[in-house]
Amino acid sequence: MLSRLMNLNKRNFKQLSEQEILALAISNEEDDGRIYQTYAENLRAEYPDTAKMFDEMAQEENEHRRWLIDVHREKFGDVIPLIRREHVAGFFTRKPEWLAKTHGVEKARKQAADMEAQAYRFYLAAAKQCADASVRKLLGDLAEAEAGHMALASDAHKRILTDEVVETEDAKEKRDFVLTYVQPGLAGLMDGSVSTLAPIFATAFATQDTWTTFLVGIAASLGAGISMGFTEVASDDGVISGRGSPIKRGLATGIMTTIGGLGHALPYLIPDFWIATYLAIAIVFVELWAITWIQNRFMETPWGKAIFQVVLGGALVFGVGVLIGTG
């Protein structure tokens, strides 16, 4: 219902005049050129080869825009009506991925391919709707150009983005992801899961009061999350180490630390002490093996070493908590 109401103020594509179709095509080419240029600038420092591909695509879009403006000036004069894709009902829309300063290089390449395919379909539909021979010819030529542009993009991809370049850029993207999110998040999850074992289970066995244990668990988890998050932010600005934004790393660390502690604190919302404790122990087992898997999957830590570091360490901390609580 809401989408229908929003479309009331939009033009139907089939109702557009030839001048409006040309104006829409001009704005599309201008927008696409600026999108490609933005991608190029955002990627240039870390992915120069992909940035070069986007530079070439932006130049091609600017050439298309000049063709369209020349025909509009010849047929309708110098005043180009303001009409954009968001003014036309049912017209394709795009998520503004290019506004993000950091985005996956493969995602940028995929969006470029989608944009070229959308432009091709637009020009085919626009050419069918126009009666003027010269306008129809231009739109048909642009449809062919966009089809060729898709081939050009593919050619540029092969010429500029060789298998070796793509492999290098993808490896760098994976490394950046690991350093910015996985490594800090893993450190937080380990700290939250392991360091809170002793206070939570010591409280549980000392009091056998589930609500008190839950409160201690919440306090320990949130406190550890805040502390670890701020520590990560303050410890490294990422400029020299290349570990990425300290804010993103701090959030990853803080959130995962809190989650690690909450996992075995939440079962103590159950009033029955032994049911809550058995469930908490089972969750601890799952947490420790999840950490072991992440270490092996993303940090390439051998299984034996990961098990020794995480499972054995967690078991020792758990044992200390139970020993203190029952002592």
How would you describe this protein?
- This protein is mainly α and 327 residues long.
- The chain has two domains: 2-161, Up-down Bundle (Ferritin), CATH 1.20.1260; 175-326, no CATH class.
- It has eleven helices and two strands; from the N terminus they run αβααβαααααααα.
- It has helices at residues 2-7, 18-43, 48-76, 105-129, 133-160, 163-195, 197-207, 210-235, 246-263, 273-298, 303-326, and strands at residues 11-12, 88-89.
- It has a two-stranded parallel ribbon with strand order 1-2.
- The longest helix has 33 residues, at 163-195.
- The model is unreliable at 1-7 (pLDDT under 50).
Order of helices and strands: HEHHEHHHHHHHH
- Distance separating the two termini: 65 Å
CATH superfamily of the largest domain: Ferritin, core subunit, four-helix bundle
CATH topology of the largest domain: Ferritin
- Given the helix and strand composition, which structural class is it? mainly alpha
